[in-house]
Every structure is written in C-alpha cells, then in structure tokens.
Amino acid sequence: QVQLVESGGGLVQAGESLRLSCAASGRAFSGSTMGWFRQAPGKEREFVAGIRWSGGSTYYADNVKGRFTISRDNAKNTLYLQMNSLKPDDTAVYYCAAAPRILAGDYGTKRNAYDYWGQGTQVTVSS
Fold it and tell me: What digits encode the pLDDT tens for the residues 65-84?
C-alpha cells in the first residue's frame, strides 16, 4: 500500500520561504509521476508542480513558475517543494500525489490522473 506523508507546512509572512516534504513508501517509484496540488478554502484543488521520478523532468503551474521548485531524493524516497517569495494567494492545504506511470503532457496536471494522495499540510501566508 502506497503511503504519502507531507510535512513542512506552517505560517509565514509574504516574501518568505518554506520547504514541503513528502515521504513516500509502499512501492518502488521509478517510472512514476509525482505531483503537488493545493486547495484553498472554497476553491477546487489545483495543480502546482509535477516531476517524473526517473529522469527528474519537471513542470509547473504558471502562477508558481519561477518561485517554486519541485525535486526528489531517490535514496530517501522523498518529494520536495521549495516555495520562495510566498504570497497570501499561496495560502492553502498542500497535497502530495503519486501516479504509478508516466503522465504525459497536460495529463500530469489533472487531479484525476493521480492514484495516491497524502493527507495534506497547511500553508498560511500572511500579508
């Protein structure tokens, strides 16, 4: 059974940084696609960033491009999201997600393309 456990959320001021972690277990992740999504109160869950576990190619939502960086540590089976220059609009619960396949093109930005989800970690950015 795949388990994803996020950590690293918290309360920060606008302009500050946070790094989220997602510890993954339960299977080998080579050939998988991992992603970060977020959900603000009253809004749909939206794609933030994705990465192919093998090879490490990455892709981002336009509204975080240049500020957020997704990465993974193969040895630790851990996914990261480095978030810089945070804005109040980034306030949300952030979720780690995994799909046991390569998600091509825009399909990797779709919530229903992912099979496994973490429980989420709250990020609050004050102005």
Answer: 999 999 999 899 999 999 99
